[in-house]
Predict the structure.
Amino acid sequence: MSRITLPRLSVAVAAAAAAVVLAAVPAAAHTEVEADKAQALAENVTLSFHAEAESDSSGIKEVRVVLPEGIAPADVTYKKGPAGWKFTADKDGYSVGGKELKTGVSAEYSVVVRQLPDAEEVAFKTLQTYGDGHVDRWIELDENGENPAPTLQLKAAAPGAKPIAPSASVDESPAAADPTPTPTAGETTPAASPQAADTAQDDDGGLSAGAWTGIGAGILVAAAAVVFAVRRRGGAEE
């Protein structure tokens, strides 16, 4: 019977542990934003959004955005997006949606903002809803988080630039007051508001990135214990 040497066993255990850790961490998809004039207090700025599709079974049908402080819903106008999609402003942001896109097709659209705020960066918390009711929540303000909100870095305002008066606020309607999708038979209602989503579990298994990290760390510790035990046994046999 062949004997497995200690170096080979150590390498095998370490490789297996690394493979488990990598498999445990889910692949990340993002919603991103770009601007033709990424500068504080810039006026009539076109913002282009790319909402990446990450469902293997359903297409995106709506993208809802909560606007950052300094941008009023009434100061945002729709420019272009998927065919047949419509723009609707509400009390704290807007929604763009319509016919469900094909599975795997990302949602790309653009809006025009009357003026960007006087800030170093602006984040656009985003809810991405699929035809089957699944919701991706890109709402975290930490860019290194598991579900980071699309964030735009701004240059300093141009000399002499001044804030302009915001437009009249959008009247709150019953639909705007409750952005939660109406569930169909057999479905549960997802937590659709970004505020509620801050405390919600992830849709994919309910485990956060921190939990996966803890699992990976536990596997590595176990692997190290195995290597240590093998070494002690080898020393005793000698």
In short: Residues 18 and 220 are 8 Å apart (CA to CA). Residues 9-28, 172-193, 195-212 have pLDDT under 50 and may be disordered. The chain has four helices and eleven strands.
